[in-house]
Design a protein that fits this description.
The chain has 446 residues and is α+β, with helices and mostly antiparallel strands. It contains nine helices and eight strands.
Length: 446
């Protein structure tokens, strides 16, 4: 009994701790976009890519700056290498040789080197490439942010769509349950056939099933939005904007008159970055035919001895120093450099063609996005009108059914038409929001 009590208390403590860690978030659509751009996992890594590109740029810059290196070396010749010299030098027999060991058992060297690149065409191209690489990373971050914004808008709208669908289905369920209850009572009194009751029962079952499905879909949509926002799935999330309000705010006829400037589009800018990188690759291959020049200054100290006494004050150290200049002049590479240069030229021409293709594709995408947005506005008006008509038709059939002037089939058909009109209207509101987001992304609107 005592053990069970301990386990219960432990479980309760863990549960309370987990509850303490749980956070709650509440966002408008704009707040959700701002939060995602800061906390989305892809956005975080895109920021890191930019920082890495900045470090890469500095790394390339340092190649042309002075380089200082130092080192200490120690060598223990526990078996000194021997050489043979004529023995007659030491008064020995001519024609014979004497073994002689050259060197000392312990050697130590301390040295330093200062080097400086004076000229290298590849280095100059490398500096330009580093700047381009940074620009590519920055543009990739902008593209990531635009994609995140579009995904947040779509995901936010899906949650609102599910919320509105649940409200409508619950309202339809209440009305249908009342009709079903009244119809059963009329059937019990023998005034209508059982088939009328059964038909309404089928419709009610469909409504209940749809309602439960939409509730499940809302949970999934909510979790997907959390994932995009960079929020832990266990946390609570509530949305403060309403679907109808967002729809009204996204109706913008002026946007349809916007001219498309392909240079403002991030995909085109990325294509230009690719073209620039190919131009730099060609310059790099050409620069390899230029000479390179560098200089270095070396200095250091040597010490020798048959005893390890390098740390003693009376140890003798011999200094040395030198300065040198190195000039490397490419002369002949068996046309290898020429072949690489031609390959770079071909890659550059391919990049130009790809940029032209990108430009044409973006213009086509803009025309389609503009048409889709315009159509979504038309559909919003049409679906709203159709919903009003469907409500009146369903209401008339309700009255006729209660008065015995319409069958359950007529009522069911009118109800199905109403349910379809309701969903079409909700979807048309969401389409206005999503289609505008797509159009603004192409126009590079913030």
């Amino acid at each position: 009994m005592k053990n069970k009590l301990m386990l219960t208390l432990l479980f309760f403590a863990v549960f309370l701790q987990a509850q303490d860690k749980k956070e709650s978030f509440s966002f408008t659509l704009k707040e959700a976009i701002d939060h995602a751009i800061q906390h989305n996992y892809s956005a975080i890594n895109a920021n890191r890519d930019v920082e890495a590109a900045k470090q890469k740029k500095w790394e390339t810059t340092t190649i042309g700056l002075p380089q200082i290196n130092s080192g200490i070396g120690y060598q223990n010749n526990f078996v000194i290498q021997k050489s043979l010299i004529p023995a007659e030098i030491f008064g020995g027999t001519p024609g014979t040789f004497q073994e002689v060991a050259f060197g000392t058992k312990h050697n130590m060297i301390a040295s330093g080197t200062i080097s400086q690149l004076i000229f290298d065409g590849s280095y100059l191209v490398g500096l330009q490439s580093a700047k381009t690489y940074l620009k590519i990373s920055e543009n990739a971050k902008i593209k990531t942010n635009q994609e995140i914004k579009e995904i947040v808008i779509n995901s936010y709208g899906n949650v609102l769509l599910a919320d509105e669908s649940i409200l409508i289905l619950q309202k339809n369920k209440v009305i249908l349950e009342k009709t079903f209850s009244d119809t059963k009572e009329i059937y019990r009194n023998g005034l209508i056939e059982e088939e009328n009751v059964e038909q309404l029962q089928i419709t009610l079952a469909i409504i209940n099933s749809s309602l439960e499905n939409v509730k499940r879909q809302k949970e999934i949509a909510n979790d997907m939005l959390k994932l995009v926002l960079g929020i832990d799935l266990q946390n609570d999330l509530s949305l403060t904007d309403k679907l109808d309000v967002l729809t009204r705010n996204n109706v913008d006829l002026v946007l349809l008159k916007e001219e498309f400037n392909v240079n403002n589009n991030i995909d085109y800018q990325i294509g230009q970055n690719l073209l620039t990188s190919k131009e730099l690759l060609l310059k790099l291959e050409k620069s390899k035919a230029l000479p390179s020049l560098g200089a270095a200054f070396n200095f250091g100290y040597n010490a020798f001895g048959n005893q390890f006494a390098f740390l003693n004050q009376d140890q003798r150290w011999l200094n040395f120093s030198n300065v040198g200049v190195n000039l490397n002049v490419p002369i002949f590479s068996s046309l290898g450099r020429s072949s690489r240069t031609q390959q770079a030229k071909i890659a550059l021409e391919q990049s130009k063609t790809q940029l032209t293709q990108t430009e044409q594709q973006l213009k086509l995408q803009f025309e389609k996005a503009k048409s889709d947005y315009e159509f979504s506005l038309e559909q919003l008006t049409t679906s709203k009108s159709n919903l009003s008509l469907a409500e009146r038709i369903e209401n008339k059939n309700q009255i006729k059914f209660k008065e015995g002037l319409a069958s359950s089939f007529d009522l069911t058909k009118a109800q199905e038409q109403l349910y379809s009109a309701q969903q079409n209207y909700l979807q048309s509101m969401l389409d206005v929001i999503n289609k505008r987001a797509t159009l603004e992304k192409l126009l590079n609107k913030n």
